[in-house]
Amino acid sequence: MNNFNFKNPTEILFGKGQIAEVRTRLPENAKVLFLYGGGSIKKNGIYEQVIDVLEGIDAVEFSGVEPNPSYETLSKAVAVVKAQNINFILAVGGGSVIDGAKYIAAAANYNGDGWDILQGTQVTSALPVGAVLTLPATGSESNGNSVVTKKSTQQKLPFSSPLLQPQFAVLDPEYTFSLPSKQISNGVVDAFVHVMEQYLTYPVNTPLQDRFAEGIVQTLIEEGPKALKNPQDYDTRANLMWSATMALNGLIGQGVVQDWSTHMIGHELTALYGLDHAQTLAIVLPPLMYVQREQKQEKIVQLGQRVFGLEAENQAQLIDATINAVQSFFEQMQVKTRLADYDLDDSIIDEVIANLEKNGMTQLGEHQDIDLAKAKQILTLAL
Ligand code: NZQ
Ligand code: ZN
To answer: Most exposed: 69, 159, 200, 301, by fewest CB within 10 Å?
Structure first.
């Protein structure tokens, strides 16, 4: 097991009615930016609940944070924060709104163009953030990561800082009842792939982390299809919500070797062609497993045997069967796994490769051996 320092300071407020707790979690003299997305919270009643909780508290609303939040929109919010001396950001939404809140929190305390932070400038100061989660998927409610898109240059880049970890996160499963089935599917696939990025590398003797990881994906495999079938089932939603948070709150990633290449290649597909985040992951992961089958062999076999209960005559067959099982699960969750499903053909590959190069994504993977040639091979297999 590798060395690690682990601290997750986000207070999880889980369950029905937990929004009421927000009031006492806000600092005294809070001046709050109430940040949300395109308006789903106005249709499902969450908006009113937040307004109730903020009664008597100085708060400014900022709406219109789009899926894959843009630097362009978030910069407008940063200007509001600076002009109005906001000192707390309350994000109400999915990963995009929460990621957007983190960018605003960091950029508001930075003297310069906030995009520098996406280009590698360390975050040294940030406003506090709190989250009310409406879409279980990203884990953003309980981690320090954020992903922001600059529309003008078609770049989608991640950044991270412990200073951006939300102080609290309300996880009320009832808030997810209004999700369209596409977003249920996306959330399950995203959480599944988060586990894979922290698990499907090479073993460093971490049986506890492995079993946590396997437990999360087994739960997603059991509960995901149930949520599509019975969207109003509270317990199913609760189990999915907690699984997605646990998939990327840091716990399973401690002491293990990680590989975020599926995400990095996927981000280019979103930046260039507008595919949903999870759609890109479902396209990239199976061929990436295929191309990296040697390097990842022990963990692919372990996944196949322990999670999917597979047996085969030899290791090569077991690896093939495991890759098929992963791909079939995505399809079962109604997320397509081919570029052709989105009317994309081989004419896109050079453009994706050029963007990976522009963004410095030329040595991906746990061995830094996913270079542009391998990325091309992966995308070709994904056609
Ligand atoms: O904007 P509104 O109107 O709220 O609608 C949203 C949006 O259209 C809707 N929605 C959310 N909750 C709803 C709802 N509709 C009905 N009922 C509800 N309860 O769902 C749509 C998608 O929302 P979005 O926040 O974009 O989805 P998601 O949570 O999947 O977030 C995706 C973003 O997170 C980033 C992705 O790259 C992408 O930009 N990620 C962030 C990570 C992190 N911070 O750790 C890790 C992930 O790998 C991921 O990269
Ligand atoms: Zn993701």
So the answer is: 301
Pocket test for ligand 1, best of 8, 41, 98, 99 (most atoms within 8 A of CB): 99
Q: Which domains does the chain have, with CATH numbers?
A: 11-175 (3.40.50.1970), 180-381 (1.20.1090.10)
Looking at the whole model, is its pTM more than 0.90?
A: yes
The pLDDT confidence band at residue 208, using thresholds 50, 70 and 90, is very high
Contact call for residues 244 and 187 (beta carbons, < 8 A): yes
Query: In the 3-class helix/strand/coil scheme, how is 186-237 assigned residue by residue?
Result: HHHHHHHHHHHHHHCCCCCCCHHHHHHHHHHHHHHHHHHHHHHHCCCCHHHH
Residue type, 158: P
Residue 17 vs residues 1, 20, 127, 170: alpha-carbon distances, Å: 40, 6, 26, 9
The answer to whether 206 and 55 are in contact (CB under 8 A) is no
For residue 80, give the amino acid letter: V
Pocket test for ligand 1, best of 10, 34, 40 (most atoms within 8 A of CB): 40
Token couple for 295: 């390097």
Closest listed ligand to the CA of 165: 1
Is there an atom of ligand 1 within 6 Å of 67 CB?
yes
